[in-house]
Fold:
Amino acid sequence: MSFPSEQVNKLIQSRRSTKPRYFNGEKIADEIVWQILENAGWAPTHGLTQPWRFKVFTDDGLEKLANFQADLYQKLTAEENFRLEKYNRLKTNILKSSHVVVICMERQKSEKIPRIEEIEAVACSVQNMALTATSYEICSFWGSGGVTYTQELKDFLNLGEKDLCLGYLYLGYSDNPATASRRDPIKNKVEWVDSVNSGQ
Structure:
């Protein structure tokens, strides 16, 4: 099976992160979101553990998630550090999304596969989702700040003790999607070893 390599190259190099505050609130068809999730499930996974777990919030679910994270921010933040502007942003930005996929990792019960490899597998699944979204001209943003790594969020999501939340993938349309980006030349990041003396 062959694929047009130039189109694949263009898709990968066209992917951008557009922050949800730039979304316009337009709804993505659920069947497209299911296709995005389907492709997430084809990420590489050591031992076929398939550790990715996704909790999808949309419609009234977005308000539930927004209220939870804003209220948790207020609860966990000392009064002198509390910023009303951030609280309001946590309450409203998420509502501009069509769907928010909360990215979770379910830890293998036997723990045979190293934890880091399970995290890596989930990260690959997120890249699959972001690329699929790009192919549908849908914006995405993987956010992992704020309340992401708190025990309170794990409890809210009903995660197991050794499971992890790795952030949110915001999905939506935008009238002003991100288009510009840059990368350093890949040759600056690569050591090419092709003989016994290479790299010495």
User: Anything to note?
Assistant: The helical segments are 5-14, 30-40, 60-76, 84-92, 115-135, 151-156.
